[in-house]
């Protein structure tokens, strides 16, 4: 990219696995618009999220750090985000989403001039309770893509002419419970199912996966695919609106996902805290305004996004583990020597913290697990059976994190209610 973009737009999609998009080989027409964008811009066909769930994946995506450096032990933001970097450079910054795990309750509003996490009543308990009751009545668990688009475009329209900005839109629609609008539901599912029944099926799949029949599994996939089709359509509409405003050609646009979802693979539904391939393979499309159309097979990661943005804007900062995905005169030289990427996920059970690390590329995947209890680290997996690269990386991350104090984090009733509706609790 020879000239710096006027603005930067990061579009992330929650729970979108790459292999449910046509441009990544899916045989259903879930993503006609993303497919077209992939064909006409830079598509990374071997792209991975750094984690399998939002609490670790999005902080890493926004900070360019591995999850254990991006947040503290309570998953509060613990590293500067790209918004902070760009705000310091004079950019106006905004974020629009409705995932409670990356809300102001966890410190993610830092660095944003405008931060709409759809929990704007959360500081007033009585009003929040009324909003929660209304949301339950409306069966509304998150802001739809149409709402996110409307709010973010309204913010853009409030800016002065030629104002440089950074915008982050995070779309929740492919995240469960899968309740697509009827016009999209009919594309892939010819049997009527109510939102209430779909939500009940989704929750049962998480709690009791063995009870899900082949027909019920297909119903969940049909509903999920319909949500993808809806999101695909609204991303196209958002980009069209940017184009109408004369903003698209001069902007850097990055489209990706924080993780995928499982449909019975490995005995799970939703997105458990294991860095399985199906959960960490995500789309990555970059529109740089350069007219370059290319498909890149070298393995890349969502922690490459922050270095990519900083490089495109000619901003230098402290070293980050990722690399820029902006090509130079020599092509994609910074990533051409890569052979794999690393992913991680952590969870607490039986008063112990389990840290899982995976190494992955197009043809290989392996995982190692460690148990951290009372300050002691025990190998839960036989490290002799994993590669030296994976074991060395995992031990390095464990050693860096040891000694960090856990911090308490109290969330509001509104946040907890949203998390329960989304299947987190």
Automatic annotation (TrEMBL):
PANTHER family: SULFATASE, SULFATASE N-TERMINAL DOMAIN-CONTAINING PROTEIN. It comes from the Archaea. Pfam families: Sulfatase. Residues 376-425 are annotated as: Disordered. It comes from Haloferax larsenii. Residues 380-403 have a biased composition (Basic and acidic residues). This is Sulfatase. Residues 7-315 form the Sulfatase N-terminal domain.
């Amino acid at each position: 990219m020879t000239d710096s973009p006027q603005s930067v737009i990061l579009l992330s999609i929650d729970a979108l696995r790459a292999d449910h998009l046509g441009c990544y080989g899916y045989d259903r027409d879930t993503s006609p618009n993303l497919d077209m964008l992939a064909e006409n811009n830079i598509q990374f066909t071997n792209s991975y999220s750094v984690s399998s769930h939002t609490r670790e994946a999005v902080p890493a995506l926004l900070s360019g750090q591995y999850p254990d450096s991006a947040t503290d032990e309570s998953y509060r933001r613990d590293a500067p985000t790209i918004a902070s970097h760009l705000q310091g450079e004079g950019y106006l910054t905004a974020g629009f989403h409705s995932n409670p795990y990356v809300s102001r309750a966890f410190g993610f509003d830092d660095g944003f001039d405008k931060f709409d996490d759809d929990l704007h009543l959360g500081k007033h308990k009585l009003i929040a309770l009324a909003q929660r009751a209304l949301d339950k009545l409306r069966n509304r668990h998150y802001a739809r893509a149409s709402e996110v688009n409307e709010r973010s475009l309204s913010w853009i329209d409030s800016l002065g002419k030629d104002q440089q900005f950074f915008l982050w839109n995070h779309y929740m629609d492919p995240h469960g419970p899968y309740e697509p609008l009827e016009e999209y539901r009919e594309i892939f599912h010819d049997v009527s199912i109510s939102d209430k029944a779909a939500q009940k099926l989704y929750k049962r799949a998480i709690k009791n996966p063995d009870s899900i029949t082949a027909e019920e599994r297909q119903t969940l996939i049909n509903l999920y695919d319909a949500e993808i089709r809806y999101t695909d359509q609204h991303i196209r509409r958002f980009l069209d609106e940017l184009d109408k405003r004369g903003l698209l050609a001069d902007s850097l646009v990055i489209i990706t996902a924080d993780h995928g979802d499982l449909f019975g693979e490995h005995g799970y539904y939703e997105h458990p805290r294991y860095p399985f391939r199906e959960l960490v393979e995500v789309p990555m499309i970059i529109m740089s305004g350069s007219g370059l159309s290319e498909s890149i097979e070298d393995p890349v990661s969502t922690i490459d996004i922050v270095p990519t943005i900083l490089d495109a804007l000619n901003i230098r900062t402290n070293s980050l583990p990722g690399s820029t995905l902006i090509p130079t005169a020599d092509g994609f030289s910074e990533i051409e020597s890569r052979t794999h990427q690393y992913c991680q996920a952590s969870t607490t059970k039986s008063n112990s913290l389990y840290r899982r690390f995976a190494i992955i590329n197009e043809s290989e995947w392996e995982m190692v697990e460690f148990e951290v209890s009372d300050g002691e680290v025990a190998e839960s997996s036989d490290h002799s059976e994993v590669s030296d690269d994976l074991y060395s990386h995992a031990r390095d991350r464990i050693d860096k994190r040891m000694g960090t104090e856990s911090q308490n984090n109290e969330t509001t009733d509104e946040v907890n209610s949203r998390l329960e509706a989304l299947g987190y609790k």
